[in-house]
Amino acid sequence: RAAFGVQYTWVFPNMTFAAGMDVLWIYEAYPLGVDCCQVYQSICVPPETAALPGFEKKIAAYYQRFDAGIEEDIPALVNQQRGLASSDARQGRFQPHLEANVASFAKWYADQWLRQS
Fold first, then answer.
1. pLDDT recorded at residue 8
2. Quick one: average pLDDT of 97-110?
3. Among 24, 67, 88, 99, which residue has the fewest nearby CB atoms (within 10 Å)?
4. In the chain, what are the domain boundaries?
5. Is the distance from CB of 15 to CB of 27 less than 8 angstroms?
6. How confident is the model at residue 7 (pLDDT cuts 50, 70, 90)?
7. By C-alpha distance, which of 59, 57, 66 is closest to 25?
């Protein structure tokens, strides 16, 4: 399954990239203030792929897909920012009993670092 899928990786604090069989794409987010950021999207393909006949038509479909993805993410991010700006929002640790996926990732990430030590 992994050979045909896409692997997502996060480079904290501001980068996400995903690698598939045919393309690598990167999202970078840079804060511009307390309530906004600039997002850059990059798409990388091997030079051999870019030299193929019909490449421009094929890559246009990828651009459309990635643009649609970020457009779907924006409303969720706006809502997240609204929550962070709430007077009820508090800084603090993850809540493992409320966010099992976040806790699971944090544990996995810590284990990777400990394994390298």
1. 86
2. 78
3. 88
4. 7-90
5. yes
6. confident
7. 66
Residue type, 22: D
CB environment 57-76: b (16+ within 10 A), e (fewer): eeeeeeeeebeeeeeeeeee
User: What tens digit of pLDDT does each residue of 25-66 get?
Assistant: 999 989 888 778 898 999 999 999 999 999 999 999 999 988
> What's the token pair of residue 48?
């051999």
Tokens standing for residue 7: 């692997």
pTM: 0.60
Query: Token match 């990239």: residue?
Result: 17
